[in-house]
Amino acid sequence: MGVRHAVVAGGGIGGLAAAVALSRRGWRVTVCERAPSLTAVGAGIVLAPNALRALESIGLGPDVWAGDALLGPVGLRTPDGTWLSRTGTSAMSSRHGPPACAVHRGFLIDALAAALPPGVVRLGVSVTGVDDAGGAVVVRTSGGDLRAEVVVAADGMRSVLRGQLFPRHPGLRHAGEAGWRAVLPGVGPPGRSAAETWGRGERFGIVPLVDGRIYVYATAAVGPGTKPADHHAELTRRFGAWHDPIPALLDRLGRRNPDAVGILHHDFYELASPLPRFHSGRVALLGDAAHAMTPNMGQGGCQAIEDAVVVAHLLADDADVPAALAAYTTARHRRTTRVSRRSRRIGELARLSRPLAVSARNLAVRATPPAVTARALDTVLGWQPPSCPASPTRPSATTEAQP
Q1: What is the reported pTM?
Q2: Which long-range contacts (CB under 8 A, 24 or more apart) does 76-80 make?
Q3: 349, 371 in Cβ contact below 8 A?
Q4: Which residues pair with 207 in a beta bridge?
Q5: pLDDT tens-digit profile of 97-155?
Q6: CB atoms closer than 10 angstroms to residue 257
Q7: DSSP 80-112
Q8: How far is 268 from 157, CA to CA, in rounded Å?
Protein backbone atom coordinates (compact mmCIF):
# COMPACT_ATOMS: atom_id res chain seq x y z
CA MET A 1 0.00 0.00 0.00
CA GLY A 2 1.28 3.47 -0.88
CA VAL A 3 1.46 6.41 1.48
CA ARG A 4 -2.05 7.26 2.55
CA HIS A 5 -3.41 10.80 2.35
CA ALA A 6 -5.20 12.67 5.15
CA VAL A 7 -6.92 16.02 4.69
CA VAL A 8 -7.31 18.19 7.78
CA ALA A 9 -9.98 20.90 7.61
CA GLY A 10 -8.77 23.78 9.80
CA GLY A 11 -5.34 25.07 10.78
CA GLY A 12 -6.05 25.84 14.42
CA ILE A 13 -4.51 24.12 17.43
CA GLY A 14 -6.39 20.84 17.02
CA GLY A 15 -5.98 20.68 13.25
CA LEU A 16 -2.23 21.36 13.32
CA ALA A 17 -1.71 18.93 16.21
CA ALA A 18 -3.54 16.26 14.19
CA ALA A 19 -1.40 17.05 11.16
CA VAL A 20 1.81 16.69 13.18
CA ALA A 21 0.64 13.44 14.78
CA LEU A 22 -0.49 11.92 11.48
CA SER A 23 2.70 12.97 9.68
CA ARG A 24 4.75 11.22 12.34
CA ARG A 25 2.61 8.11 11.85
CA GLY A 26 3.52 7.98 8.17
CA TRP A 27 0.57 9.78 6.60
CA ARG A 28 0.84 12.35 3.85
CA VAL A 29 -1.16 15.30 5.18
CA THR A 30 -2.80 18.35 3.63
CA VAL A 31 -4.12 21.05 5.96
CA CYS A 32 -6.71 23.40 4.46
CA GLU A 33 -6.96 26.67 6.36
CA ARG A 34 -9.37 29.30 5.11
CA ALA A 35 -7.44 32.23 6.63
CA PRO A 36 -4.67 33.82 4.55
CA SER A 37 -2.11 33.15 7.29
CA LEU A 38 -1.66 31.07 10.43
CA THR A 39 -1.52 34.18 12.61
CA ALA A 40 -3.46 33.08 15.65
CA VAL A 41 -6.54 34.98 16.69
CA GLY A 42 -6.56 34.87 20.45
CA ALA A 43 -4.56 35.60 23.53
CA GLY A 44 -3.25 33.10 26.07
CA ILE A 45 -3.75 29.38 26.50
CA VAL A 46 -2.84 27.25 29.50
CA LEU A 47 -1.28 23.92 28.55
CA ALA A 48 -2.34 21.62 31.36
CA PRO A 49 -0.37 18.44 32.22
CA ASN A 50 -2.60 16.27 30.03
CA ALA A 51 -1.97 18.50 27.00
CA LEU A 52 1.78 18.70 27.69
CA ARG A 53 2.02 14.90 27.76
CA ALA A 54 0.04 14.68 24.52
CA LEU A 55 2.35 17.19 22.83
CA GLU A 56 5.45 15.43 24.10
CA SER A 57 4.17 12.16 22.59
CA ILE A 58 4.31 13.77 19.13
CA GLY A 59 7.74 15.29 19.58
CA LEU A 60 6.98 18.64 21.19
CA GLY A 61 8.62 18.25 24.57
CA PRO A 62 9.49 20.55 27.49
CA ASP A 63 12.28 22.33 25.60
CA VAL A 64 9.64 23.86 23.29
CA TRP A 65 7.71 25.36 26.20
CA ALA A 66 10.60 27.30 27.76
CA GLY A 67 11.59 24.58 30.22
CA ASP A 68 11.31 25.98 33.73
CA ALA A 69 9.06 28.92 32.86
CA LEU A 70 6.02 27.09 34.21
CA LEU A 71 3.07 28.27 36.21
CA GLY A 72 3.47 28.62 39.95
CA PRO A 73 0.68 28.60 42.53
CA VAL A 74 -2.86 29.05 41.27
CA GLY A 75 -5.66 30.47 43.31
CA LEU A 76 -9.19 31.79 43.60
CA ARG A 77 -10.03 35.16 45.21
CA THR A 78 -12.91 37.46 46.01
CA PRO A 79 -13.07 41.06 44.70
CA ASP A 80 -11.61 42.44 47.95
CA GLY A 81 -8.58 40.20 47.55
CA THR A 82 -9.46 37.49 50.07
CA TRP A 83 -8.11 34.09 49.05
CA LEU A 84 -10.75 31.39 48.74
CA SER A 85 -8.24 28.72 47.72
CA ARG A 86 -4.63 28.48 46.71
CA THR A 87 -2.84 25.42 45.40
CA GLY A 88 0.94 25.13 45.21
CA THR A 89 2.46 23.49 42.18
CA SER A 90 4.45 20.89 44.14
CA ALA A 91 1.35 18.92 45.08
CA MET A 92 -0.17 19.31 41.63
CA SER A 93 3.09 18.35 39.93
CA SER A 94 3.66 15.19 41.96
CA ARG A 95 0.08 14.11 41.41
CA HIS A 96 -0.52 15.01 37.76
CA GLY A 97 2.94 15.14 36.24
CA PRO A 98 4.48 18.28 34.70
CA PRO A 99 3.21 21.65 35.95
CA ALA A 100 1.07 23.60 33.53
CA CYS A 101 2.51 26.40 31.45
CA ALA A 102 0.80 29.31 29.73
CA VAL A 103 1.74 30.52 26.26
CA HIS A 104 0.35 32.86 23.67
CA ARG A 105 -1.79 30.99 21.15
CA GLY A 106 0.42 32.31 18.39
CA PHE A 107 3.44 30.68 20.03
CA LEU A 108 1.66 27.31 20.09
CA ILE A 109 0.47 27.66 16.48
CA ASP A 110 4.02 28.51 15.36
CA ALA A 111 5.49 25.52 17.23
CA LEU A 112 3.00 23.11 15.67
CA ALA A 113 3.45 24.55 12.18
CA ALA A 114 7.25 24.33 12.49
CA ALA A 115 6.94 20.61 13.26
CA LEU A 116 5.22 19.92 9.92
CA PRO A 117 6.94 19.00 6.65
CA PRO A 118 7.08 21.82 4.05
CA GLY A 119 4.02 22.34 1.91
CA VAL A 120 1.52 20.66 4.23
CA VAL A 121 -0.53 23.77 5.00
CA ARG A 122 -2.59 25.39 2.24
CA LEU A 123 -3.65 28.88 3.26
CA GLY A 124 -6.72 30.67 1.94
CA VAL A 125 -8.39 27.32 1.17
CA SER A 126 -11.69 26.46 2.86
CA VAL A 127 -13.30 23.02 2.99
CA THR A 128 -16.94 23.26 1.90
CA GLY A 129 -18.01 19.62 2.06
CA VAL A 130 -17.08 15.97 1.71
CA ASP A 131 -18.31 13.10 -0.43
CA ASP A 132 -17.50 9.82 1.30
CA ALA A 133 -17.54 7.22 -1.46
CA GLY A 134 -16.48 4.37 0.83
CA GLY A 135 -12.94 3.60 -0.33
CA ALA A 136 -11.88 7.24 -0.31
CA VAL A 137 -13.25 10.69 0.41
CA VAL A 138 -13.60 13.52 -2.08
CA VAL A 139 -13.00 16.76 -0.21
CA ARG A 140 -14.65 19.82 -1.74
CA THR A 141 -12.54 22.93 -1.22
CA SER A 142 -12.43 26.48 -2.54
CA GLY A 143 -9.23 25.50 -4.34
CA GLY A 144 -10.58 22.37 -6.01
CA ASP A 145 -11.33 18.77 -5.03
CA LEU A 146 -8.92 16.59 -3.06
CA ARG A 147 -9.00 12.82 -2.59
CA ALA A 148 -8.04 11.29 0.73
CA GLU A 149 -8.32 8.09 2.75
CA VAL A 150 -9.40 10.06 5.83
CA VAL A 151 -10.61 13.57 6.67
CA VAL A 152 -10.13 15.25 10.04
CA ALA A 153 -12.72 17.97 10.59
CA ALA A 154 -11.05 20.51 12.85
CA ASP A 155 -12.97 23.47 11.45
CA GLY A 156 -14.07 24.99 14.73
CA MET A 157 -17.23 25.35 16.75
CA ARG A 158 -19.21 26.50 13.71
CA SER A 159 -17.97 23.51 11.74
CA VAL A 160 -19.26 23.22 8.18
CA LEU A 161 -18.51 19.51 8.13
CA ARG A 162 -20.34 18.85 11.39
CA GLY A 163 -23.39 20.52 9.89
CA GLN A 164 -23.17 18.28 6.84
CA LEU A 165 -22.64 15.04 8.78
CA PHE A 166 -25.15 15.73 11.58
CA PRO A 167 -27.79 18.03 10.07
CA ARG A 168 -30.39 17.25 12.75
CA HIS A 169 -28.17 18.11 15.69
CA PRO A 170 -29.38 21.27 17.51
CA GLY A 171 -25.93 22.83 17.30
CA LEU A 172 -24.47 25.53 19.48
CA ARG A 173 -26.14 27.00 22.56
CA HIS A 174 -25.24 30.30 24.21
CA ALA A 175 -23.66 29.62 27.59
CA GLY A 176 -25.00 32.73 29.34
CA GLU A 177 -21.71 34.61 29.40
CA ALA A 178 -19.43 36.79 27.36
CA GLY A 179 -15.71 37.28 27.82
CA TRP A 180 -12.84 39.69 27.22
CA ARG A 181 -9.20 38.71 26.65
CA ALA A 182 -5.97 40.65 26.25
CA VAL A 183 -2.21 40.27 26.62
CA LEU A 184 -0.05 42.93 28.28
CA PRO A 185 3.74 43.30 28.33
CA GLY A 186 5.31 42.31 31.63
CA VAL A 187 6.94 44.72 34.05
CA GLY A 188 10.13 43.39 35.63
CA PRO A 189 10.79 39.69 36.24
CA PRO A 190 7.72 37.65 35.36
CA GLY A 191 5.75 36.24 38.26
CA ARG A 192 4.60 32.65 38.05
CA SER A 193 1.43 32.91 40.16
CA ALA A 194 -1.95 32.79 38.42
CA ALA A 195 -5.29 33.69 39.96
CA GLU A 196 -8.94 34.06 39.12
CA THR A 197 -11.29 36.34 41.07
CA TRP A 198 -15.00 35.55 41.40
CA GLY A 199 -17.54 38.26 42.07
CA ARG A 200 -21.29 38.28 41.56
CA GLY A 201 -21.75 36.96 38.04
CA GLU A 202 -18.34 38.31 37.01
CA ARG A 203 -14.77 36.98 36.93
CA PHE A 204 -11.30 38.35 36.30
CA GLY A 205 -8.24 36.18 35.61
CA ILE A 206 -4.50 36.90 35.57
CA VAL A 207 -2.09 34.38 34.01
CA PRO A 208 1.67 34.91 33.41
CA LEU A 209 2.88 33.69 30.02
CA VAL A 210 6.24 31.98 29.46
CA ASP A 211 7.54 34.99 27.51
CA GLY A 212 7.04 37.35 30.47
CA ARG A 213 3.81 38.92 29.23
CA ILE A 214 0.56 38.81 31.18
CA TYR A 215 -2.65 37.25 29.90
CA VAL A 216 -5.76 38.79 31.41
CA TYR A 217 -9.38 37.79 30.88
CA ALA A 218 -12.76 38.67 32.29
CA THR A 219 -16.29 37.32 32.03
CA ALA A 220 -19.78 38.59 32.73
CA ALA A 221 -23.18 36.93 32.78
CA VAL A 222 -24.94 38.56 29.82
CA GLY A 223 -27.20 37.47 26.99
CA PRO A 224 -26.08 36.81 23.42
CA GLY A 225 -25.16 39.80 21.30
CA THR A 226 -24.52 42.12 24.25
CA LYS A 227 -21.61 44.23 23.07
CA PRO A 228 -20.50 47.40 24.89
CA ALA A 229 -19.54 50.43 22.83
CA ASP A 230 -16.24 50.82 24.72
CA HIS A 231 -14.73 47.59 26.02
CA HIS A 232 -12.12 49.24 28.21
CA ALA A 233 -14.72 51.50 29.82
CA GLU A 234 -16.94 48.49 30.46
CA LEU A 235 -14.10 46.51 32.04
CA THR A 236 -13.19 49.49 34.22
CA ARG A 237 -16.82 49.90 35.29
CA ARG A 238 -17.11 46.26 36.26
CA PHE A 239 -13.66 45.54 37.73
CA GLY A 240 -11.93 48.86 38.39
CA ALA A 241 -12.61 48.73 42.16
CA TRP A 242 -11.46 45.14 42.61
CA HIS A 243 -8.26 44.14 44.40
CA ASP A 244 -4.73 44.90 43.19
CA PRO A 245 -3.27 44.47 40.63
CA ILE A 246 -6.52 44.50 38.62
CA PRO A 247 -6.96 48.33 38.53
CA ALA A 248 -3.33 48.80 37.43
CA LEU A 249 -3.68 46.17 34.71
CA LEU A 250 -6.82 47.85 33.41
CA ASP A 251 -5.04 51.19 33.43
CA ARG A 252 -2.18 49.75 31.38
CA LEU A 253 -4.66 48.15 29.02
CA GLY A 254 -6.28 51.52 28.45
CA ARG A 255 -2.98 53.13 27.43
CA ARG A 256 -2.95 51.06 24.22
CA ASN A 257 0.63 49.92 24.65
CA PRO A 258 1.96 48.91 21.21
CA ASP A 259 3.20 45.59 22.65
CA ALA A 260 -0.24 44.70 23.96
CA VAL A 261 -2.86 42.57 22.24
CA GLY A 262 -6.07 44.52 21.73
CA ILE A 263 -9.10 43.66 23.81
CA LEU A 264 -10.91 40.69 22.29
CA HIS A 265 -14.58 40.17 23.09
CA HIS A 266 -16.78 37.18 22.36
CA ASP A 267 -19.89 35.35 23.52
CA PHE A 268 -19.49 31.86 24.99
CA TYR A 269 -21.14 29.03 23.08
CA GLU A 270 -21.05 25.28 23.57
CA LEU A 271 -22.40 22.04 22.15
CA ALA A 272 -24.56 21.46 25.18
CA SER A 273 -26.11 18.41 23.51
CA PRO A 274 -23.29 15.97 22.67
CA LEU A 275 -23.01 14.63 19.16
CA PRO A 276 -24.06 11.00 18.83
CA ARG A 277 -20.51 10.15 17.73
CA PHE A 278 -17.34 11.86 16.55
CA HIS A 279 -17.05 10.12 13.19
CA SER A 280 -18.95 9.23 10.08
CA GLY A 281 -17.38 6.76 7.68
CA ARG A 282 -13.94 8.15 6.88
CA VAL A 283 -14.47 11.55 8.52
CA ALA A 284 -13.50 12.30 12.13
CA LEU A 285 -14.49 15.43 14.03
CA LEU A 286 -12.00 16.93 16.44
CA GLY A 287 -11.83 19.73 19.02
CA ASP A 288 -14.54 22.39 18.91
CA ALA A 289 -16.07 20.78 15.82
CA ALA A 290 -16.75 17.68 17.93
CA HIS A 291 -17.31 18.99 21.45
CA ALA A 292 -17.20 22.79 21.76
CA MET A 293 -17.16 23.54 25.48
CA THR A 294 -17.10 26.56 27.77
CA PRO A 295 -13.64 27.84 28.80
CA ASN A 296 -14.23 27.44 32.54
CA MET A 297 -11.74 24.59 32.94
CA GLY A 298 -9.29 25.82 30.31
CA GLN A 299 -9.60 22.43 28.62
CA GLY A 300 -10.97 23.25 25.16
CA GLY A 301 -7.59 23.39 23.44
CA CYS A 302 -6.16 20.65 25.68
CA GLN A 303 -8.94 18.24 24.70
CA ALA A 304 -8.40 19.06 21.02
CA ILE A 305 -4.72 18.13 21.38
CA GLU A 306 -5.71 14.87 23.08
CA ASP A 307 -8.13 14.16 20.21
CA ALA A 308 -5.36 14.69 17.69
CA VAL A 309 -2.95 12.29 19.38
CA VAL A 310 -5.58 9.58 19.82
CA VAL A 311 -6.97 9.70 16.28
CA ALA A 312 -3.46 9.54 14.80
CA HIS A 313 -2.54 6.63 17.07
CA LEU A 314 -5.60 4.68 15.97
CA LEU A 315 -4.92 5.43 12.30
CA ALA A 316 -1.32 4.19 12.47
CA ASP A 317 0.10 1.49 10.22
CA ASP A 318 -2.47 -0.11 7.91
CA ALA A 319 -5.46 0.36 10.20
CA ASP A 320 -8.91 0.04 8.66
CA VAL A 321 -10.01 3.68 8.59
CA PRO A 322 -13.75 3.34 9.41
CA ALA A 323 -12.97 0.90 12.22
CA ALA A 324 -10.21 3.17 13.56
CA LEU A 325 -12.55 6.15 13.61
CA ALA A 326 -15.24 4.14 15.39
CA ALA A 327 -12.58 3.31 18.00
CA TYR A 328 -11.76 7.04 18.16
CA THR A 329 -15.36 7.82 19.10
CA THR A 330 -15.23 5.12 21.78
CA ALA A 331 -11.98 6.53 23.17
CA ARG A 332 -12.99 10.19 23.20
CA HIS A 333 -16.76 10.64 23.44
CA ARG A 334 -17.30 9.80 27.10
CA ARG A 335 -14.25 11.70 28.29
CA THR A 336 -14.91 14.93 26.42
CA THR A 337 -18.59 14.85 27.36
CA ARG A 338 -17.66 14.64 31.03
CA VAL A 339 -15.11 17.44 30.78
CA SER A 340 -17.65 19.61 28.95
CA ARG A 341 -20.33 19.03 31.58
CA ARG A 342 -17.90 19.73 34.38
CA SER A 343 -16.85 22.98 32.73
CA ARG A 344 -20.51 23.95 32.38
CA ARG A 345 -21.12 23.33 36.11
CA ILE A 346 -18.16 25.52 37.06
CA GLY A 347 -19.59 28.28 34.88
CA GLU A 348 -22.94 27.98 36.62
CA LEU A 349 -21.25 28.44 39.99
CA ALA A 350 -19.23 31.40 38.76
CA ARG A 351 -22.33 33.12 37.36
CA LEU A 352 -24.14 33.13 40.69
CA SER A 353 -25.11 36.69 41.53
CA ARG A 354 -27.51 36.65 44.48
CA PRO A 355 -25.64 37.57 47.69
CA LEU A 356 -26.71 34.51 49.69
CA ALA A 357 -25.85 32.13 46.88
CA VAL A 358 -22.46 33.81 46.37
CA SER A 359 -21.70 33.63 50.10
CA ALA A 360 -22.60 29.94 50.23
CA ARG A 361 -20.47 29.23 47.17
CA ASN A 362 -17.47 31.06 48.59
CA LEU A 363 -17.81 29.29 51.94
CA ALA A 364 -17.88 25.91 50.21
CA VAL A 365 -14.78 26.73 48.15
CA ARG A 366 -12.89 28.00 51.21
CA ALA A 367 -13.79 24.86 53.19
CA THR A 368 -12.52 22.46 50.51
CA PRO A 369 -8.94 21.27 51.23
CA PRO A 370 -6.47 21.75 48.35
CA ALA A 371 -5.77 18.01 48.33
CA VAL A 372 -9.43 17.32 47.62
CA THR A 373 -9.40 19.85 44.76
CA ALA A 374 -6.30 18.21 43.28
CA ARG A 375 -7.78 14.73 43.59
CA ALA A 376 -10.96 15.86 41.85
CA LEU A 377 -8.86 16.72 38.79
CA ASP A 378 -7.29 13.28 38.49
CA THR A 379 -9.49 12.13 35.61
CA VAL A 380 -8.83 15.32 33.66
CA LEU A 381 -5.17 16.16 34.27
CA GLY A 382 -4.01 12.56 34.77
CA TRP A 383 -4.75 11.46 31.22
CA GLN A 384 -1.98 9.59 29.41
CA PRO A 385 -1.41 9.48 25.64
CA PRO A 386 -1.90 6.03 24.15
CA SER A 387 1.81 5.49 23.50
CA CYS A 388 2.55 5.82 27.21
CA PRO A 389 1.78 3.22 29.91
CA ALA A 390 -1.10 4.10 32.21
CA SER A 391 -0.88 4.05 35.99
CA PRO A 392 -3.73 3.81 38.54
CA THR A 393 -3.82 7.60 38.96
CA ARG A 394 -3.21 8.36 35.27
CA PRO A 395 -6.01 6.99 33.09
CA SER A 396 -5.20 5.92 29.55
CA ALA A 397 -6.63 7.32 26.34
CA THR A 398 -9.34 4.69 26.15
CA THR A 399 -10.23 4.26 29.82
CA GLU A 400 -11.11 6.77 32.46
CA ALA A 401 -11.40 6.31 36.20
CA GLN A 402 -14.76 7.02 37.71
CA PRO A 403 -14.99 10.52 39.22
Answers
A1: 0.92
A2: 76/195, 76/196, 76/197, 76/198, 76/365, 77/195, 77/196, 77/197, 77/198, 77/243, 78/197, 78/198, 78/199, 78/362, 79/197, 79/199, 79/241, 79/242, 79/243, 80/242, 80/243
A3: no
A4: 215
A5: 777 889 999 999 999 999 999 999 999 999 999 999 878 999 999 999 999 999 999 99
A6: 11
A7: T--EEEEE-HHHHHHHHSSPPEEEEHHHHHHHH
A8: 11
